[in-house]
Structures are given as structure tokens and as C-alpha cells.
Amino acid sequence: MCRLFGFRSVIPSQVHTSLLDAENALGEQSNDHPDGWGVAYYVDGSPHVTKSPTHALGDQLFHRLSGVVSSETVLAHVRKATQGDKGLLNCHPFQFGRWVFAHNGDIPGFAESFQAPLREEISPRLRRFVLGDTDSETIFFIFLTMLERHSPLRQRPELGDVVAAVKSTLELVRSICQESAGRPVILTFIVTDGDTMVATQGGKELLFSTYKTRCPDRDTCPSLSGVCEAPSATGQVNHLIVSSERLQGFNVWEELCPGDILAVDARMRVVRSRVGRHSLTMLGAVPRSLSIPGP
């Protein structure tokens, strides 16, 4: 299985510690996930994606990139191949337009049994852009197909539309694949367009953090507020980190449960959807809900 790291913040921030220096940093995790790495970050609303089929911790490009990336939105991934060759085209994150996607999961028997029927679900306009042979890239383009039913991909979507597209993707993939030879279909992933970020726990662990016990930059950061060092009472936060592992440092971590969806919009409002519910609940002490559109 792979490892994921997603980051959203109100200000451009360095992620060097999370990628390299911290205990359980993504680079360290590549010792057990040596089949490629990728980092996507946004500059002026556009994604910049760098990836390689090499072992991240031994790749000087990964070290150099980790030291210079400063962005409001970052999505990173280290790969342990389960489906598809160990090549550049199969490295995450995958990109289409402003959207990038990374997956930690597996569809057992994908190439033999499910690749063809799943790719038939991708709209013909998008299908020709699938370049690799992983289950992950196919899932990404199914998500884009579902999202396009709500709004054009070139437009900034409503948060509820993105969550609805994620839910539809999960339901469709599971309905086609079910279980293969007694092995579960695992669909944990993160997707973002730089403003909205949505993560789902689809069978592999995923944690998130929205505040620290104490911000190490509290004396210098111009955006410091109460939500940086305490749970938000309104759902509005200054940063969100989503990770396959608890990272060393001051962040307070909470686990997502299987089937949970966590999302943050362009205004840094964080919402959560739990299994079987048709609404998004705003994080915070005061319960607030947003509806999720139907398919």
C-alpha cells in the first residue's frame, strides 16, 4: 500500500518537515514504499506536479523539492505498487487541469477483471487522457466524470458537488468490483483543485489535524488565531493536514473512520460526512449541516 499527505492553509507554508524531517515523514515512509513518489503544489492557482519512479528518500530531486515547496495547497504520495508497472506514468499524484489525485488502496484483480468495465464508466472525452495502467488513475477519471455531471471542470465547484462526486465514485467502483477472491476493495484517496480538498477513508488508515497544542511560529506568524491552537467552534480553520501517519510535532490528530469523507472549501471551512448520512456536518461545537446533491 501507499502513503498520502495532503495540506491546506490560509497562507503559503513550508512542508519540508512533513516530507523529510519529522518522525514518520513521507520520505521516511518511502523505505517501505519504494516504487515512486510525487508532490503536487499550487502556485497562483495552478498545480505543479513533480514525480519519479524512484525511492523518494534516495532521490536528490525529492530532497531539493521538499526544501523549496511553500504553498497553500500540497498533495504528496509515496508508492508501493499493487496495480500497474513501476513506471513514471503510474506514479501519483495524477493531474487533469486544476485537479490532482492520490490513492492509497487496491482493487484486487483490476487488470484481469475490472479495468475494462471501470474505464467504460469514464466519459469518452476524458477516457483518452488515461495514460497509465493503475486502478488509481482510473478511479480519478471516474471521479472527474462524476464531477462534470454537476458543473464544468473548468469552473470552481461547490463543496457539496465535489463530495457528491466522491460518493458516487465510491459507490460505482464498489458496485462493479465488490470483493475479489475474498480481498476487499480499498479506496482511500485525496483529491484537490487547490481550493477544495476532499479525503476519504476507504479501508486504509487516514488521520487529520486542524490545530496544534502550540504553534512553533506563534511569535512570528501574521495569521495566528485561536483556531491554530484549539478546536474550531465554527468549522473555520487556518490549516488542515491529512496524513496516512501521525507526524511528529505539535499537531493534534484525529482518525477518520472507514467510509468517512473529510472536506475543506476555499474559505477553509471543514466538513465531515459519515457512513450512511446524506449531509455534511461542519466541524465545531455547534452542529451545522450542508446538503449533498444527488447524482
Total count of helical runs of at least 4 residues: 7
What is the mean pLDDT?
83
Quick one: overall form?
globular
What is the rounded Rg? 18 Å
Q: Number of DSSP strands?
A: 15
Helix-strand pattern: EHHEEHEEEHHHHEEEEEEEEE
Which structural class do you get from the secondary structure elements?
A: alpha+beta
Largest sheet: 8 strands, antiparallel
Distance between the terminal alpha carbons, to the nearest Å?
Answer: 30 Å
Give the strand line-up of the largest sheet: 5-6-7-8-12-13-14-15
Q: Into which percentage range does the β-strand content fall?
A: 25-35%
Which regions have little confidence, pLDDT < 50, spanning 5+ residues? Answer: 20-31
Helical amount:
10-25%
Structure described in brief:
The chain has 295 residues and is of the alpha+beta class. It has helices at residues 16-21, 26-29, 60-68, 110-119, 124-127, 135-148, 159-177; strands spanning 3-14, 37-43, 46-52, 70-78, 94-96, 99-106, 186-192, 197-200, 207-209, 239-243, 254-255, 261-264, 270-273, 279-282, 289-291.
Describe the structure.
The chain is α+β, with helices and mostly antiparallel strands and 295 residues long. 22% of the residues lie in helices and 28% in strands. The chain is built from seven helices and 15 strands. It has helices spanning 16-21, 26-29, 60-68, 110-119, 124-127, 135-148, 159-177, and strands spanning 3-14, 37-43, 46-52, 70-78, 94-96, 99-106, 186-192, 197-200, 207-209, 239-243, 254-255, 261-264, 270-273, 279-282, 289-291. The strands form two sheets. It has an eight-stranded antiparallel β-sheet, covered by helices on one side. Strands 3-2-4-1-10-9-11 form a seven-stranded antiparallel β-sheet. Strand 2 (37-43) and strand 3 (46-52) form a beta hairpin. The longest helix is centred in the middle third of the chain and has 19 residues, at 159-177. The two termini are 30 Å apart. Mean pLDDT is 83; it is low at 20-31.
